[in-house]
Design goal:
124 residues, 4-stranded antiparallel sheet, 11 strands
Amino acid sequence: QVQLVESGGGLVQAGGSLRLACAASGRTFSSYAMGWFRQAPGKEREFVATINSNGGSTYYADSVKERFTISRDNAKNTVYLQMNSLKPEDTAVYYCAGSRSSYRATSLRLYDYWGQGTQVTVSS
């Protein structure tokens, strides 16, 4: 069983930056692909970014490409999401997710473990 705990959310002005972190329990973290998803009020949860198990491959939603960067430190069992040039439309609860597959994935259905989420609010 893997537990995921997100941190780093908060309130930021448009144009600002935040760095989210997701700490994972267990010794198999380095074999999992990881992803970040977000859910705004009244909307479905959507894909943001994903990274494969060794960190060598990433993929982003078009809406965050070139603004957000996903990375991981397998020695620390942690995955990060660096968010720059934030916009009000980035406001959402951000979730970290882990997939037992080592390959990056964009579909929610391919993820086996989820964190509790962290709120990101971007003011205009």
